[in-house]
Design brief:
Layout lengths: L5 E5 L22 E5 L7 H11 E2 L5 E2 L3 H20 L9 H13 L11 H20 L9 E6 L2 E6 L20 H9 L6 E3 L5 E3 L5 H12 L3 H5 L3 H5 L25
Antiparallel strand pairs: 1-2, 3-4, 5-6, 7-8
Helix pairs in contact: 2-4
């Protein structure tokens, strides 16, 4: 039985028209990442369909949704999982809870091929999440021979159905409980490279506006002061800012918002 032998590819900037010889060549968004078989160059269909459903939206004009680094991580995780299946002479449709558990445990018994160091706990957890989402999609499409149990989980955005919740995540060592932070002097020097500070400290110790506001400094300042990620900062709407409840609070302080009002996280 031939293995997958997958490699990562990106769609071209100029898209090919669909053809009868290569029906999968639809108008994919530029730079969209997916897996293909190294032997014949065709997409690995279950993974291709999963990535397309999860990260491509739109009808007439297709666009990629989601952070680029998250998409790249998901594709690399799928590539690693297919390499594992090749080593076990298995196909996606053969995956069951035992095989998934075996895959997770391989990351605690062998070093990461890119660094030669043990896998970080965050990497194992991310791969578990991506692979379980992939297998859930395969199960929904009727591609799996063995069904996984489905659990409903509450998230900040609502409830979602997941699989593999009863499979324990392998432990790689003690949890690092130390919080690592940049030295304030180093952070200030980094921010100053993007432009003057938008605020100053007055002689009496109050935060005052300096009169300077540079676009390059706006994003890092917003992320640091609110705890937003880069993609969240890019998606920030004017209404959320203008509707923030900051009455009675000073800049840089945390305060519980009033009921029914929206405010950013301060840190």
């Amino acid at each position: 039985m031939a293995g997958y032998d997958v490699v990562v590819r990106k769609s071209a900037r100029r898209h090919d028209h669909a053809s009868e010889e290569v029906p999968w060549k639809t108008r994919l968004p530029a730079e969209f990442m997916f897996l293909v078989s190294h032997s014949d160059g065709r997409p690995v269909q279950p993974a291709f369909d999963f990535l397309r459903r999860k990260y491509i939206k739109g009808r007439k004009r297709l666009r990629v949704v989601g952070a680029q680094n998250s998409i790249e991580a998901a594709v690399r995780d799928l590539c690693d999982f297919h390499d594992f299946l090749d080593s076990r002479r298995a196909r996606v449709e053969d995956v069951d809870e035992e095989l998934l558990q075996d895959y997770l445990e391989t990351m605690t018994s062998s070093p990461a091929p890119t660094t030669g160091n043990p896998y970080a706990a965050e990497t194992i957890q991310r791969r578990r999440s991506n692979i379980c989402a992939f297998l859930k999609d395969c199960q929904d499409q009727g591609r799996l021979k063995h069904r996984f149990s489905i659990t409903t989980v509450k998230t900040p955005r609502g409830t979602v159905e997941v699989i593999g919740e009863d499979i324990a995540t392998p432990q790689v060592g003690p949890i690092d409980r130390y919080v690592r932070a940049l030295d304030p002097r180093v952070l200030k020097a980094m921010l100053d490279e993007t432009g003057p500070a938008p605020t100053d400290i007055s002689p009496d110790g109050h935060v005052v506006q300096s009169g300077h506001l540079f676009r390059k400094r706006l994003m890092p300042e917003t992320c640091i002061q609110t705890g937003l990620r880069r993609e969240e900062c890019c998606e920030l709407k004017r209404g959320a800012i203008m509707g923030a409840d900051i009455a009675g609070s000073r800049p840089g302080s945390a305060r519980t918002p009033a009921p029914g009002r929206t405010r950013c996280r301060a840190g």
